[in-house]
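User: Hey, my collaborator sent me this sequence without any context and asked if I could get a structure. I don't really work with proteins. Can you help?
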Amino acid sequence: MKKIFVLFALVACSFTMYAQSLQEGIKLIRYERYGSAKNILQNQSGDEATYYLGLAELGLGNTAAAREQFNKISGSYLGMAGLARVLFAEGNKVEAMKMLQNIVDGTRRKEWEKYKMAADAIAYSKGGPINTAIEWYKKALEIEPDAATYLSLGDAYLTQQTGGGEAMNNYEAALSKTNDKSLVYSRIGALWYQARMYENALENYDLAKNADPENPIPYRDLANAYYRIGKYTLAKENIEKYLSLSDKSIDDQITYANLLFLSKDYSNALSKMKGLIAEGHEQPYMYRILGYSNYELKNYADAYKDMQTFFGKIAADDIIPDDYIYMGKILTALANSDTTKAMVYTDSANYYMEKGITSDTAEDKTKLYRNIAEDFKDAKNYQQAGVWYGKLVQNTSNYTAEDYFYWGVYTYYSKKYPEAAKIFSDMAQQYPEEPSPVYWQGRSAAAQDVEAKTGGAATFYEKWLGMEQEGVTKNNADLMQAYQYLAIYYYNQNNKAEAIKYADKILSLEPGNETASQIKEVMSKSK
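Assistant: No problem. I've predicted the 3D structure and written it out in structure-token form, which is a compact way to encode the shape of the chain:
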């Protein structure tokens, strides 16, 4: 009897170890550690282990190996769901959906897992009808309110532009039904991150990290979020932690190089990506990081070559607005460094900037316009800075008085004085309490009346001198501009009192000013 008991104990122990190993493999797949998951699952048996081994192969990019695993269990719904994922990966969406429809068509009332696995095949692949996945997840939940299904339904909603509220509802439902909370907190963090509420994202990524310190995903996402709020040292710390917990696969190393770029460690990002290419792991999108990093390191010629290579290798669908914007920034920098081709480079820069604007699907493009304008300003290309601040004001509704001001100022510095005068006139009407557009109306008029004979600037300067703005003191340089014009204008008009008044104001700012002294001397003797 004792031997039988021992045998039962050994069988139970073996089953427990198998179950633990299977669950560990599944967990590693969810943590995107596909290589480690493969090492565990290839020593397991059964349909479920074979299915997840196929998913690990897919995660590693081994489509043929994944198909081989799924074919072993093609008679089961798990095998069919896996093969549908392979079909999606190969771009065969029609056949993939036929296979998934066969799974759910044969579903009996209690078989909620069939709905779940069929929906997963759509939600975690590219190109499937996400609304169908949502419908199948809901059917699965009607039968069994399972935490993993709530999590997956949240993920499906997260892919939709207006699905944030439903995603959060399902993530919260998943939290209430599981003790394995790390992945759920990561997803909630991703939801806040997508909404650009980075502090909330950080809070949930921290919860994810604390719920399971072995989960690398929160560290990767923390690095992204810290980058967004400008905490680059913390971004770098989390990048290093992410890599230490990941499988250090090629994809992990590429992610690491991307995060190095985001944390502004451009030299190491460049070095890491070049190393991966030299080792034979070239992917088209790697040239994006090379181009961006070389731009930030001011290696503009190299950046231009990298981006040309990138556009030549990447599929059109995989180009993002920032790719066009960066190419525009690179061409702007080249225009400054090679004056013989400045016009050609500038025209090309504007072409790419416009492409970036039109390809961006955001409803509010204020920030994008402002970033482009600031890039031209930083490059000291004031003419283009003026053009793009103008586009910002004319094409968005969330511009500020400062944006309007820069439009006018950089147009003025481009010596387009009538155009600048019109911009400041419109600004003065829109912001009647703001002194600056009145002053710059004066500057624009004075630039067209350099001998101060017509008096075109006098009205504006005198109005500006009488305007007060709480907490703001007029600077001496601006006062000097106004006083000098007015003193010379009234001197030309032989207006003794006004000419001497403004000459005295000049001398109060700059005792011994020769022009003011001469005006005062001549006008004092005048009858």
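In plain terms: Residues 432 and 438 are 9 Å apart (CA to CA). You can pass these tokens on to your collaborator as they are.
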